[in-house]
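Sorry, I am new here, but would you mind making up a protein's amino acid sequence and the C-alpha cells describing how it folds?
***
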Amino acid sequence: MLQGTAWTQLPSAFLRAEESVRQGHTPTVEDLPERKATNASRREVAAALDAERAWARVALNAIGDAVLTIDLHGTVTYMNRVAETLTGWSESEAIGKPLSRVFHLVDGKTHQTTILPGRRAIEENKTVGFALDCVLVRQDGSKLEIEDSAAPIHDREGRVTGAVIVFHDASQSQAMLEKMAYLAQHDALTGLPSRALLTERLSRAIGLARRHRHLVALLYLDLDAFKPINDSLGHALGDSLLQAVAGRLQECMRDIDTVCRQGGDEFVILLAEIRQPEDATKVAEKLLAVLGRPYRIHGHELLITLSIGISLYPDDADDADTLMHNADTAMYHTKRNGRNGHYCFTDEMNTLPIRRRRSEPGLHRSLQPSQFLFDF
C-alpha cells in the first residue's frame, strides 16, 4: 500500500524509560508502571497503524483508477483491485516482484520497452506522465493501452521512499470522450441530432448548394394536439410517442438528410440536396401519410397529425438563421389554416399577425380522448 508514517504522542514515562535503557540503566521493579505505560502506548500505535492501513485499502479499492506502489528498489509493495484487473496479476503474486515484471510497458508503435514511470518519479523526485502510446503487456501477454502518471512518495522528513503509479485503460477515456461528444450533439430522448448539429449541417449544406447550384430545403414539423395526449395520458406515454415519431421520420429520409428534434414536439428536417421545390412538397406529403398511421403505445392506439412549414435556399433565404425562421413561420401558417398539412413560405406570411402558441388554447377542451386514442 502507499508508504507513510503514523505518529502518536507517547507518554513521558515511555520516553524516560527508553532514555534509561540507552544509558545502560536496567529497569527495576519501580520501573514497572512506566513499562506498562510503554506497552500500552505501543499497542495504541499498532492499532492506529492497522486502522490506517484498513482505511487506505478500502479507499484505494473503491476508486476507478489502478494504483500500484513500489519501494526505492523498484519492488512492488501494493496493488489495488483495478491494478490487479488491468495487469492480470493478483496482489499476492505481485508483492515483492520487480516492477518491470509486473508492470511491463512498451511503446505502442515501436513495441520497445519504455522507461518505467515509477523509476523516473523516484530519480527525478517529481510527478511524471506516461509516454504517448504507452502499452501495458499484461501477465497473459495481451496488450492494453494505458495512460496517467507516477509520483514520488515521501516520508515525514521529505525523503523519497518509493513511488505510486496511477493508471487507467486509455480506451475508456476515448469512449467517454466520444459519448460526451455524442450527447452534446444529439437529443437525449430520441437520439436525433440536436439543434447545434443541425445548424452546423445546414450551414455546410448551404455552402455546397451555393457552389454546385442546387437547392436546400428545411421542413419545420409540429405535432398537432400533442399536448392533450401528453396531459391526459402522462409524460411517459408522451415520450414514447415522440420516440416513435422520430423513428418514422428517420425511416422516410435519405442518408444525406438530417432529422432534428428542435424541442418539445417540434422537429426539423434538412433536405441537403434537391433539384426543384416540388421535391420538398413530395417529402412533406409522404410524412403526412406515414406519420398519420396509428401508433400503438402503452395499451393505446393513438392518431396524430402534422403541421409542416417549408422554406428553400436560395428562393426564401440565403443564410441558415433566416431559412430556419421562414420554415417556422410557414409551419405556424399551416396551423392557422387548419393543421394537418403543409405550406411553403412566402413573403406575405411575414405580414400576418401569427402568434406562436405552444399550448394551442382551446384545443384540449374541444377534443375528447376518444377522438385521438382507442384502448385495446
User: Anything to note?
Assistant: Residues 186-375 form a domain with the Alpha-Beta Plaits fold (CATH 3.30.70.270). The chain has two domains: 12-171, 186-375.
